[in-house]
Design brief:
Shape: globular
Structural class: mainly alpha
CATH class of one domain: Mainly Alpha
Largest sheet: 3 strands, antiparallel
Number of helices: 11
Helix content: 25-40%
Strand content: 5-15%
CATH superfamily of one domain: Transferase(Phosphotransferase) domain 1
CATH topology of one domain: Transferase(Phosphotransferase), domain 1
Distance between the termini: 17 Å
Radius of gyration: 20 Å
Keywords: ATP-binding, Kinase, Nucleotide-binding, Phosphoprotein, Serine/threonine-protein kinase, Stress response, Transferase
Order of helices and strands: EEEEHHEEEEHHHHHHHHHE
Mean pLDDT: 84
Protein name: mitogen-activated protein kinase
Pfam family, one: Pkinase
Family: Belongs to the protein kinase superfamily. CMGC Ser/Thr protein kinase family. MAP kinase subfamily.
GO molecular function: ATP binding; MAP kinase activity
Number of strands: 9
Strand order of the largest sheet: 4-6-7
Length: 299
């Protein structure tokens, strides 16, 4: 059966910061009997959303968690993939404070046309709210910035009641954009809406993130830029001085470009069943678990 989730298992040798498959199996012995299969993934224990509800995170833990999140994003972005639904609940964390990015159900290729209403509202980039049909991987960077700010303050940074209110909450912090930004909007409705907004000045991030270090504030000011074209990328963010004590490029695997040919396949239900059964039977689990360099297969 065709899945709404793209076959991101084709991106191999994932880093530890991206959830992977340890095994795939079915109890069914023949294609005719095939109805179920099971995905085996690393046990992580909790997610970042639950963790933040139960405890206040220290500066060191925030730094380590954000660094891991950005390393995972750097990898999937290099593969040509946009996650599109980054939020605390999609970031698994174990007892050693190791983080893995979960749930690629809304992930898409970076050069494909997009729908506007993806990403949980509070972590949604302004260009998504404004219904741009083509946007870049920096939509994930906006979400990551919102998550980082929430880790620091313990509160959701932009908590709009609907998508228009969300945009207003964002601009209370970033300020209203210049005319040049508005002109680039693809939707006439979005242009008219933006032109009708009262002019707002950009707030000093340090006044909002009162418990954050100057370096953390500086990084967030680069991640939470209203104009996506000027927003920092994951690779650029990882070189920021905020992560100086953690920076290590030696253990970063090279991302393979996502094979989009699967997306264009057109099969009957029986053909999809046969393809899926073949994939399950041919999956080769990693030889060793728990090695420093992950040999999981990306989900």
């Amino acid at each position: 059966m065709p899945s709404a989730e793209p076959p991101l298992h084709t991106v191999l040798r994932v880093p530890p910061q991206v959830i992977g498959l340890l095994d795939v199996f079915t109890p069914d012995e023949t294609l005719d009997d095939f109805t179920d299969f099971y995905l085996v993934m690393p046990f992580m224990g909790t997610d970042l959303g639950k963790l933040m509800k139960h405890e206040k995170l220290s500066e060191d833990r925030i730094q380590f968690l954000v660094y891991q999140m950005l390393k995972g994003l750097k990898y999937i972005h290099a593969a040509g993939i946009i996650h599109r639904d980054l939020k605390p609940g999609n970031l698994a964390v174990n007892e050693d404070c190791e983080l893995k990015i979960l749930d690629f159900g809304l992930a898409r290729q970076a050069d494909s046309e997009m729908t506007g209403y993806v990403v949980t509202r509070w972590y949604r980039a302004p260009e998504v709210i404004l219904n741009w049909t083509r946007y870049t991987q920096t939509v994930d960077i906006w979400s990551a910035g919102c998550i980082m700010a929430e880790m620091i303050t313990g509160k959701t940074l932009f908590k709009g009641s609907d998508h228009l209110d969300q945009l207003k909450e964002i601009m209370k912090v970033t300020g209203t954009p210049p005319a040049e930004f508005v002109q680039r909007l693809q939707s006439a409705d979005a242009k008219n809406y933006m032109k009708g907004l009262p002019e707002l000045e950009k707030k000093d991030f340090a006044s909002i993130l009162t418990n954050a270090s100057p370096l953390a504030v500086n990084l967030l000011e680069k991640m939470l830029v209203l104009d996506a074209e000027r927003r920092v990328t994951a690779a650029e963010a990882l070189t920021h001085p905020y992560f100086e004590s953690l920076q290590d490029t030696e253990d970063e695997p090279t991302a393979q470009k996502y094979d989009e040919s699967f997306d264009d396949m057109d099969h009957t239900l029986d053909e999809w069943k046969r393809v899926t059964y073949k994939e399950v039977l041919s999956f080769k689990p990693p030889r060793q678990l728990g090695t420093k360099v992950s040999k999981e297969t990306a989900l």
